[in-house]
């Protein structure tokens, strides 16, 4: 059974498609478009991008990749840079993203990370844009526990639809305060880099013997287990990125994997959950 996440009344499969670093190389463009399209054909609804990714090149790629599909069948996420998150600049930034994405609206628009614009001004403008119909929901990204509490204290803060942070088996800091807070306040969590960017940052997830053992038991690859672990948590959406059609199909299929209590316990022993607060992990 496919795990799901609900954003303000819209339910999507718990594994979507990330696009960070996509669109940067012309020699990979066809493969990247094919991978995105394969993910949607395999059952993904969510595609996550940002104006920052390749200075708009990722949005351009996504816009081209999505042309064969019905817009209402998709859940499209993009993000606004901190320097554009003001009353004077946000709508212009949003409209440029929409043009690159070849769409009239975003299902979710995220404040990419905190900058110098007062948070209250950013949230007020996001709420105004929602009322125009250019975005259907708004949220935040790279917010820690203190940021979320500050946000919740604003008049329109509780209307936040999601927070997107780095989260994978080797980086569990959000489990101490952020994830419990979001679950208690019914704010969905989006996990970026859910497979640790292919194990390139020293976490040794793919080489861990217990991860390998669990993968063998399910007759799947290592990364499917890492994704299944991330979405085993309630109301968590994972957005892995790949330029391979085969890997994309495997990623989406991981949404149907269920890890046993014993397997989850074994993974916990290898990669313990945090017992104290730690700074928010970011890339």
Automatic annotation (TrEMBL):
The record marks 79 as: Lowers pKa of active site Tyr. InterPro entries: AKR, NAD(P)_OxRdtase_dom_sf, NADP_OxRdtase_dom. Substrate binds at residue 112. Residues 14-268 form the NADP-dependent oxidoreductase domain. Pfam families: Aldo_ket_red (PF00248). The active site is at residue 53. It comes from the Bacteria. GO terms for molecular function: oxidoreductase activity. This is Aldo keto reductase. It comes from Levilactobacillus paucivorans. The lineage of its organism: Bacteria, Bacillati, Bacillota, Bacilli, Lactobacillales.
């Amino acid at each position: 059974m496919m795990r799901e996440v609900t954003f303000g009344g819209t339910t999507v499969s718990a594994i979507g498609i990330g696009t960070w670093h996509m669109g940067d190389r012309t020699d990979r463009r066809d493969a990247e478009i094919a991978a995105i399209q394969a993910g949607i054909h395999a059952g993904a609804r969510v595609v996550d991008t940002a104006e920052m990714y390749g200075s708009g090149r990722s949005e351009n790629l996504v816009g081209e990749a999505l042309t064969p599909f019905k817009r209402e069948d998709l859940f499209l996420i993009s993000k606004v840079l901190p320097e554009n998150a003001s009353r004077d600049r946000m709508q212009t930034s949003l409209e440029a993203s929409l043009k690159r994405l070849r769409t009239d609206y975003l299902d979710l628009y995220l404040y990419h990370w905190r900058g110098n614009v007062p948070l209250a001004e950013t949230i007020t403008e996001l709420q105004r844009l929602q009322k125009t119909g250019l975005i259907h929901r708004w949220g935040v990204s790279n917010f820690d526990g203190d940021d979320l509490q500050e946000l919740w204290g604003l008049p329109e803060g509780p209307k936040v639809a999601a927070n997107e942070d780095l989260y994978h088996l080797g980086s569990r800091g959000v489990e101490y305060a952020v994830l419990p807070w979001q679950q208690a306040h019914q704010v969905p969590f989006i996990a970026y880099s859910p497979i640790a960017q292919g194990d390139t940052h020293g976490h040794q997830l793919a080489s861990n013997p217990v991860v390998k053992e669990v993968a063998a038991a399910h007759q799947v690859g290592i990364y499917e287990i890492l994704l299944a672990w991330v979405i085993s948590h309630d109301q968590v959406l994972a957005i892995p990125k790949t330029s391979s059609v085969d890997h994309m199909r495997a990623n989406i299929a991981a949404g149907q994997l269920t890890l046993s209590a014993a397997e989850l316990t074994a993974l916990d022993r290898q990669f313990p959950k945090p017992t104290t607060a730690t700074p928010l992990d970011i890339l």
